[in-house]
Every structure is written in structure tokens, then in C-alpha cells.
Write a structure and sequence with these properties.
CATH class of the largest domain: Alpha Beta
Oligomer: single chain
Order of helices and strands: EEEHEHEHEH
CATH topology of the largest domain: Rossmann fold
CATH superfamily of the largest domain: Vaccinia Virus protein VP39
Radius of gyration: 32 Å
Number of helices: 4
Number of domains: 2
Strand order of the largest sheet: 3-4-6-5
Strand content: 15-25%
Largest sheet: 4 strands, mixed
Length: about 230
């Protein structure tokens, strides 16, 4: 797992175990962990380490798929959380937890200049309205800002992307489905071969037992040559 933790304008990046980051207590003022908590074997221990290395005024920004809504069967997810479960987990380690909601959507109507714009650091000069709403708990990903005080630390922001990103995502999902189906087929074939081998071994054993029984129940062997009177 790669740790990239920021303090001031500097960033420290290293690779280490999620439960034992090689940093001193209160070393950093910001930790960002997007879609990793569902991959670790001991989330509470990871969060305890986040808390340990975070400064008193620091913030943790963490996200995870929302289990009731997220439709991708990911074999690498060891534990998935609903919004309420995720917030409860974080609240055990941070006095203030502010949930935010990442929801995919589609937008339209941009002028020539803004249609061409692809700089995520430059805000769009548009008014945004929504024609469809969801309640908290219906988002695809839950994002949380955690710390001792999270009031007023986050602005309302959004990111616009192309519909082809969703197409690419669906292609990945389909590829994973095909890989899973292939793995299941190979496992079934291996199980069938193992069953056939076990059946052949059982038949060979029975045949051997029948041969031994015939030897024991047959006529006595002839005496050695020269032993007859």
C-alpha cells in the first residue's frame, strides 16, 4: 500500500503496511484515502493509525463504495459498508465526521470554450441545476471528512467528465465478469477431473480387493516338486 501524506506544502510518499505507517505521531495535517478501507483486513486498526499520525487540527478524507448501491462484485473487497455503517466506523476514532456524497450524473449545455475545457483546476462559469435527486444513503460512493472539527472546511464542488468514462468503467466490469466466469468454469472442470480420478481410484481399490478375496478362497497351491510320496 502506498502512503502519500501531506504536511503544509510537502508530500511524503512511501510504501508500507496500512496498519504500520512509518511515521511519528501527529506527523501530518491531511490524509486522503479513497476506496482503500474496503480492501484491508483490519479497518479499525488502519483508522487508529490514521488517527495516530494525524495532527490535532488535521483532517482525514476517506471514501468507500456504498454497499447497498454499488453494483460491482469486486473479489478484492473484504468488507463493504453502507453509509450509516461507514459513518459509525469513523466516529469511533474521530470526534467529528462529515459525510459527503459522490453521485454519478450527466450534464449538458456548455458554450464552445467551456465545452473544450479539460482543466480540473479551473472552475466552470455556469449555473448548475439538478432535475433528479437522491437521499443520503443512495449515493454510489460515500466520502467523509474526519477530524476534531470539520465544520466549514469543505466547499461544495463537483467534477464534470465524459459519458465515455462510464462506458470504460462498464467495459472493465464486463471484463471482470468474464474473468470470474472463466475462473468458475476452470474450477468446475478441475473438480470434475478430481471426482473422476477419485472414482477411478475407488474402482481400482475394489478390483484389488476382489482379486485378494479370490486368492484366499481358491484351491490350495500344489506342493513343491519332489515332495510327493
Amino acid at each position: 500500500m502506498r502512503w502519500s501524506l501531506t504536511r503544509g506544502r510537502g508530500t511524503a510518499s512511501t510504501i508500507g503496511k496500512p496498519t504500520s505507517p512509518p511515521f511519528a505521531d501527529r506527523s501530518f495535517d491531511l490524509i486522503v484515502s479513497f476506496e482503500t478501507i474496503e480492501h484491508v483486513t483490519d479497518p479499525p486498526e488502519v483508522l487508529a493509525e490514521f488517527r495516530r499520525v494525524l495532527d490535532e487540527d488535521g483532517l482525514l478524507i476517506v471514501s468507500t463504495p456504498n454497499a447497498p448501491v454499488y453494483r460491482v462484485e469486486n473479489p478484492y473487497h473484504l468488507r463493504e459498508y453502507s453509509t450509516a455503517e461507514f459513518v459509525d466506523l469513523l466516529a469511533a476514532y474521530f470526534p467529528s465526521v462529515r459525510p459527503l456524497y459522490q453521485q454519478n450524473g450527466m450534464s449538458s449545455v456548455l458554450d464552445d470554450e467551456q465545452l473544450r475545457l479539460d482543466d480540473g483546476r479551473r472552475p466552470l462559469d455556469v449555473e448548475v441545476t439538478k432535475v433528479m435527486g437522491q437521499d443520503p444513503g443512495e449515493e454510489v460512493y460515500t466520502v467523509a471528512v474526519c477530524g476534531n472539527d470539520t465544520a466549514g472546511v469543505m466547499a461544495q464542488v463537483g467534477v464534470a467528465t465524459g459519458v465515455f468514462e462510464l462506458s470504460g468503467f462498464l467495459e472493465v466490469v464486463e471484463r471482470l465478469d468474464r474473468m470470474a466466469a472463466t475462473a468458475e468454469s476452470r474450477a468446475a472442470a478441475a473438480e470434475s477431473r478430481a471426482g473422476a480420478a477419485e472414482s477411478r481410484a475407488g474402482a481400482a481399490k475394489k478390483q484389488g480387493e476382489r482379486g485378494e478375496g479370490q486368492d484366499e478362497g481358491g484351491a490350495a497351491p500344489p506342493p513343491p516338486r519332489g515332495a510327493e510320496a
